[in-house]
Design a protein that fits this description.
Length: 325
């Protein structure tokens, strides 16, 4: 006997209501203003997703229910709230998990994660027989416990100028974004006199065509976008040439790369003027090719321990080599 419903009965049956999802979000006011736009809310509504702001003045455990929790906050109290919430609701994904966030707040441990992925090693540019056209690497970097360390030992090996000084802690605060581009020994001396945040990291500066790629990873989904970055730097002995070096001979302190690019004053007459240089950088950014999909997948293989962002800098030589930074 055929127990299947007749076409007439099937046509008359009511479709089940769509599944709805309640996504709680905890962001700084600036992030809310930037991201929680009417267009996003409308799109979420079309997908049966409700974006619900978390009240930071109330315990997280007293709010909800949520199907997922998104946050971009830090601090001991917030971390404790996340862990308590997770113990009460172990099936609710938290993006990002507290332990993963803590690991990525340290500029040394965040790159150790990349080493653990065992990605393809850097390519020898002189080896034309190499069959691979893409590889991944990590800039050399050295932990500086305090400025006195520089005074006693100078630029640590294997670093060479130029280098970038970055706070060890990368927790999204204003101080964690304060960086310095050091061109020479005189700049290093200025750094040791001015640096207040310790410990900090000295990292190799890699010329990368003024473009970085941000790769967003959620599960098996990978999305890559281009962002403007610091322009390439050419060195003549201990003097930096180009748009940045012409006006900042020894040390350049900055917090936002986009602001730095806009604020850089005109170069000397021996170099292109400011407008021409900026136009060239914009053209280079436009021309920069996105990493191939298969290379992005290779770069993010094994990255599911945390749904975080990879930042890939593109070097200018023929065989594409990408640096995590």
């Amino acid at each position: 006997m055929d127990c299947r419903p007749s076409p007439t009965a099937a046509a008359g049956a009511e479709a089940p209501p769509p599944t709805t999802y309640r996504i709680g979000y905890a962001l700084s006011p600036k992030k809310v203003e930037s991201f929680i736009q009417p267009s996003l809310l409308n799109l979420a509504k079309q997908r049966h997703i409700h974006l619900l702001p978390i009240d930071l003045h109330k315990p997280l455990s007293h709010q909800g229910p949520f199907d997922c929790l998104l946050h971009k906050l830090s601090g001991p109290d917030w971390t404790q709230q996340l862990r308590h919430f997770s113990s009460l609701h172990p099936d609710v994904p938290i993006i990002d998990p507290p332990d993963a966030v803590l690991r990525l707040h340290d500029r040394l441990s965040m790159l150790q994660v990349v080493r653990d992925l065992h990605l393809p090693e850097p390519i020898d540019e002189s080896d034309s027989s190499s069959s691979s056209s893409c590889s991944f690497g990590i800039p050399h970097q050295v932990l500086v416990p305090d400025p006195q360390h520089l005074r006693e030992q100078g630029l640590p090996s294997p670093l060479e100028f130029p280098v970038i000084a970055k706070p060890l802690l990368a927790d999204g605060t204003a101080s964690s974004h304060q960086m310095s581009l050091v061109f020479n020994h005189q700049g290093l001396k200025q750094l040791e006199e001015e640096e207040e945040e310790a410990p900090f990291v000295l990292q190799e500066f890699v010329n990368h065509g003024g473009v970085v790629f941000k790769v967003y990873v959620v599960g098996d989904y990978v999305q890559c976008v281009k962002r403007r970055s610091l322009p390439d730097i050419l060195m003549d002995d201990d003097k930096a040439l180009g748009r940045l070096g012409a006006s900042h001979h020894n040390l350049l302190t900055f917090s936002q790369i986009s602001n730095l690019a806009a604020a850089a004053p005109p170069s000397s007459s021996s170099f292109k003027n400011n407008d021409e240089q900026q136009l060239q950088e914009e053209e280079e950014e436009e021309a920069a090719q996105m990493p191939p999909v298969d290379k992005r997948s290779a770069a993010t293989n094994g990255w599911n321990w945390s749904r975080r962002i990879l930042v890939l800098g593109r070097t200018a030589h023929a065989n594409e080599h990408y640096y995590y930074k």
